[in-house]
Design goal:
The protein is α+β, with helices and mostly antiparallel strands. It is 27% helix and 32% strand. Helix 2 runs antiparallel to helix 3.
Length: 193
């Protein structure tokens, strides 16, 4: 017999703030853009801890700059579901640019390279299509255009994908690359040597 059955209650007890404390912790991912100034990462992490979040990992790529000139940061955290909205609002109240926030959805990463007229074929649209139609999340993007934007360029794109879904994601990426006349360089996948 479980403790819930023994106590005659199946409803978790709320803590002093009325938040359920049954251990119903969930993992979340928050994507942020930070100004490149000392103390900004700490300023972004403080509201998470102050609102009941527990940090799981921080992916902070100081060498990569977003189109707005900020640093992309991905924070994985866990908290009671009732506290997550408070964490996101506290980040926004602190002036932190929250790009995306929600339950952790992806369990694998996949890196590919796209080559061609990325700017002319609307790189922003390509990235949006990956997020919506390919069922992947762009974690990191490195764009190289050594001969200027009018010439072919290349982009290394690191994607977060659902576990076990690499083949379907690659097929969708092939279709996207074909539609935009881009070359897709796929990762080497393990197999018999």
């Amino acid at each position: 017999m479980t403790d819930e059955c023994a106590s005659g209650s199946s409803t978790p007890a709320p803590d002093a703030e009325g938040v359920e404390t049954d251990g119903g912790i969930q993992a979340y991912t928050v994507r942020l853009e930070l100004v490149d100034e000392p103390g900004e990462l700490l300023r972004a992490l403080t509201p998470i801890g102050e609102n009941g979040g527990n940090l799981l990992s921080i992916h902070h790529e100081r060498g990569n700059i977003t189109p707005r000139g900020h640093i992309p940061v991905e924070v994985d955290l866990e908290c009671a579901p009732a506290r997550f909205d408070d964490i996101v609002q506290a980040l926004r109240d602190a002036g932190i640019n929250v790009i995306q926030a929600g339950p952790e959805r992806y369990g694998e990463e996949l890196s590919v390279v796209l080559v061609g007229h990325l700017v002319e074929t609307d790189l922003s649209d390509t990235l949006s299509t990956i997020g919506h139609d390919v069922n992947a999340s762009v974690v990191d993007l490195s764009l190289a255009a050594p001969d200027g934007m009018a010439e072919p360029s290349s982009a290394r794109v690191r994607l977060a994908i659902d576990s076990g879904n690499a083949a379907a994601v690659l097929e969708s990426l092939r279709e996207l690359a074909d539609a935009k006349d881009l070359c897709l360089v796929e990762p080497l996948v393990g197999g018999d040597a």
